[in-house]
Design a protein that fits this description.
This protein is α+β, with helices and mostly antiparallel strands and about 500 residues long. The protein is built from 16 helices and 8 strands. A hairpin with a 4-residue loop joins strand 7 and strand 8. The longest helix has about 35 residues.
């Protein structure tokens, strides 16, 4: 038996104290990042869901890509000249071609004709929240990177604080006291998700803090020139020449790539400084069975081959940097990996939620008042998903230019102030039921409004409707089922049924 003052017990106590302190400091923001991260794993599918009636195509030929570029640039006559032009090629997740300039983004069909404006503001809102919490980009990346470091520390201290972690890995006492069951869920899900959480936390910290590190290096060694700092990894752009010239020949570049690297699947075509003598072409292509986000192939303005940057077969540092993004966002392995990332991200949400709830209830057992903190935490847990849905409705009613970020954060701040001032008005059970009903209603109305949507879009509605409708039906049935004669229901059972 371990003595209370033994070194092992001291390490466990210190780890538990550090785990609690860091968790309380970062739990709300980590929960928001985990929730939004779980959603944006399938951001391409959400983009289809948000704009379900856009013409789709599985293939965009080189000639059609060239026509699409010309059509979009022609439609922007009189607007400021764009410095970059992008063609997002159709993929299985998003079978739509998109041409983007500095002035906007447009869908094009398989023949290269413009068919509509890209306006998936809610999806972009989710992505921006996860990547930099809608703060100014540099400060947001610093904060998100720091939260990734905190999450790594939470994992390490959590493991150190549980010396019986292996023995108890499959111990789940669901029918015991709710506090014990909640602690078991926290500990078991925390153990089972350790590899995933470490992977996404470390890569998130690398992505967030890495950009800041590059900025510091640029200020110290290149006078703030970011392109020179990134050049060893992502390549060096040729010298610009602003003299006018015919638009770059992306069609020839795509055909050359198809001949020289037949297994590469183009995903993005980028024209730097289009319509000038200094323009050049970069084609980002997916390499099957590789973790890298793709290899970038460079061509001159006439479509002549200049070679790859080396993300697929260059220095190890390049390959590691190119693999970080897919490992963090789950953009590899298709739908099966995306589902796994969403489930594991959901588990991280549960771990974060139960961790803070356990601490609050521990305070209550010690006789410390925590009603205000508990009400604020309930607003975070259930108010955040409810507000994400509210922003979706705001986007639908007010259009793609609706102030989603301002609406979300101002509403969340107001709800927290109300919870702190009047904790009695915050009822967790009502919030949970409201979230479930709002999700189910949104999916049903979307399905009714867009019955001719592609099967992939309808599948998302079905995946949402079936489990939520089943859960609500089961809970409603339990509430209406009369108790058997002579059955004595404890206060805890009554509370569980109400929840």
């Amino acid at each position: 038996m371990t003595r209370p003052d033994s070194p092992r017990q001291s390490i466990v106590q210190r780890a538990l104290g550090g785990h609690a302190a860091i968790g309380l400091l970062a739990s709300a923001l980590i929960y928001i990042l985990a929730l939004t991260g779980s959603l944006i794993v399938i951001h391409d599918r959400w983009q289809r869901w948000e704009q379900p009636l856009v013409t789709e195509t599985r293939y965009l030929s080189p000639d059609a890509a060239q026509r699409a570029m010309q059509a979009v640039l022609a439609s922007e006559a009189g607007k400021p000249r764009t410095a970059h032009l992008y063609i997002r090629m159709p993929t299985d997740d998003l079978p739509r071609a998109v041409v983007t300039t500095d002035n906007g983004a447009w869908y094009v069909d398989g023949a290269g004709r413009v068919v509509g404006r890209e306006a998936h503001a809610w999806t972009e809102f989710l992505i921006a929240m996860h990547e930099y919490l809608h703060l100014p980009t540099t400060w947001g990346l610093i904060l998100v990177g720091a939260l990734g470091v905190m999450l790594v520390v939470l994992v390490v201290t959590g493991v150190l604080a549980h010396p019986r972690i292996i023995r108890d890995a499959f111990r789940l006492r669901m029918r015991h006291d709710p506090q014990i069951a909640r602690a078991d869920w926290h500990n078991r899900l925390g153990v089972w998700t350790v590899p995933f959480v470490l992977a996404v936390a470390l890569t998130g910290a690398f992505i967030g803090l890495g950009s800041v590190g590059f900025s510091m290096l640029a200020r110290a060694y290149t006078g703030g020139d970011m392109e020179r700092i990134y050049a060893p990894i992502f390549g060096q752009d040729p010298a610009p020449d602003a003299a006018k010239a015919p638009l770059a020949d992306a069609a020839t570049a795509l055909r050359v790539l198809g001949r020289r690297v037949p297994f590469a699947d183009p995903t993005y075509v980028t024209i730097h400084d289009p319509g000038t003598r200094g323009q050049h072409i970069q084609i980002l292509a997916d390499h099957p069975r590789r973790l890298i986000y793709g290899e970038s192939y460079v061509f001159d303005g006439a479509g002549r081959w200049r070679g790859p940057i080396g993300l697929s077969n260059g220095a190890i540092g390049k390959q590691v940097a190119a693999s970080t993004y897919n490992l963090h966002f789950g953009n590899y392995g298709g739908l099966a990996v995306e589902i796994a990332y969403m489930l594991l991200g959901g588990a991280l949400c549960v771990v974060t939620a139960t961790g803070t709830t356990l601490w609050l209830q521990k305070r209550r057992r010690r006789g410390l008042r925590g009603d205000r903190l508990a009400a604020c935490w309930d607003v975070i847990l259930w108010g955040v998903p409810l507000l994400l849905l509210a922003m979706l409705w705001l986007r639908a009613l007010a259009g793609p230019d609706a102030p989603l970020a301002a609406g979300f954060w101002s509403s969340l701040a107001a709800a927290i102030i109300v919870a702190a001032a009047r904790p009695a008005v915050i009822a967790r059970a009502h919030l949970r039921r409201t979230v479930a009903a709002a999700v189910l209603t949104t999916a049903c109305l979307h399905l009714i409004a867009f019955p001719d949507a592609p099967p992939g879009v309808i599948a998302i509605d079905a995946v949402i409707i079936v489990p939520f409708a089943t859960t609500l039906a089961i809970r409603f049935g339990r509430r209406r089922r009369p108790a058997a004669p002579g059955t004595v229901r404890t206060l805890e059972e009554v509370g569980g049924a109400a929840r």
